Amino acid sequence: MPLDNVIFWVFAPISVASAIAMLTRRNAVHAALFLIVNFFTIAVMYLLLDAPFLFAVQIIVYAGAIMVLFLFVIMLLGVDRTEASGERLFGMRTMAGVLVAAFILEIFFALRAGIGFATRAPGGFEAVNAPANTQALAKVLFSQYFFPFEVTSVLLIIAAIAAMVLANRRVRAVTQAELEAHQAAVADEGVPTEVLAP
Amino acid sequence: MRTPIAYFLLLSGTLFALGTMGVLIRKNALLIFMSVELQLNAVNLALVAFSRLNGNLDGQVLAFFSMVVAAAEVVVGLAIIVAVYRRSQSVDVDEARSLRW
């Protein structure tokens, strides 16, 4: 058995198992850690597919930056918070399981009918990928895809500004008149007409 | 490169289906968001596999852009979840119903 086959059959089950483990954990931190395992196995798959640059980017951006952000938010909102059990709709989990199984079967048959399970990639990829993946990717990225590349930088700035605007807690002092009106409303009707920020 | 491309595509489809399942059955908004990340990763894997299959780098470039967009999406999505949590003290998607009557 060739080495890359061995690597695939070692890491593909780990990938699927960590995804299933992520779905079944109640604790959000455990789910996040299983998702990191899954991202690492996908990075290994990129390496098998002759994409070492994306392998590095996957580990740095996904397993590093994005998951740290996720864990930070989980810690910020409280780790001991458990999910409410029970189903939103009757038979929701069973229905989801049936749909997902049908989807996987559909992919299987579509692949068999489309490209077949014996298809190996054509030999021309090494020439495209020369002299090395990062250089070849840079050549394409900074010529053919230069405009989209610049647009993504604008997108990142917009996202950063949007995050600051959304997560900003606007603290406003409550005026004496508002406080009196609030207390008077509570005294009159027993319920506050307008909830004041503390 | 001896592993058939179809195996990678099947793995990608399986991971996408599991991510869909997570979106459907979880209630915690953070876990739903993580499942969306799993779906994005599965699609990225399919893009890189197709790039290898077609013998050009366009799929890898697209996967790269997809990662950048996912990073932006995570930043905005987590900020929205934090804002919702501040309002209702809960990240349960069933609790956030103020837009619904």
How would you summarize what this structure contains?
Chain A is built from eight helices and no strands. With 198 residues, chain A is mostly helical. In chain B, 56% of the residues are buried.
CATH level 1 class label of chain B? Mainly Alpha
Mean pLDDT of chain B: 88
Largest interface: A-B, 87 and 71 residues
Number of strands of chain B: 0
Order of helices and strands of chain A: HHHHHHHH
Uncertain parts of chain B: none
CA radius of gyration of chain A is: 26 Å
Given helix and strand content, the structural type of chain A is: mainly alpha
- Here the CATH topology of chain B equals Helix Hairpins
Shape descriptor of chain A? extended
- Mean pLDDT figure of chain A: 85
Percentage beta strand of chain B: under 5%
| Cα-to-Cα separation, first versus last residue of chain B | 56 Å
Taking the sheet with the most strands of chain B, its summary is: none
Taking pLDDT < 50 over at least 5 consecutive residues as the criterion, the unreliable ranges of chain A are: none
SSE run of chain B: HHH
Helix content of chain B: over 70%
State the helicity of chain A in percent bands: over 70%
What is the number of helical segments of chain B per DSSP (H or I, 4+ residues)?
3
Oligomer type? heterodimer
Query: Quick one: overall form of chain B?
Result: elongated
Please describe what this structure looks like.
The complex is a heterodimer of chains A (198) and B (101). Chain A has helices at residues 3-24, 28-48, 52-77, 92-114, 125-128, 133-141, 146-167, 176-189. Chain A is an all-alpha fold and 198 residues long. Chain B is mainly α and 101 residues long. Chain B has a single domain (5-88), classed as Helix Hairpins (Orthogonal Bundle). Chain B has helices spanning 5-25, 29-54, 58-88. At the A-B interface, helix 1, helix 2, helix 3, helix 4 and helix 6 of A face helix 1, helix 2 and helix 3 of B.
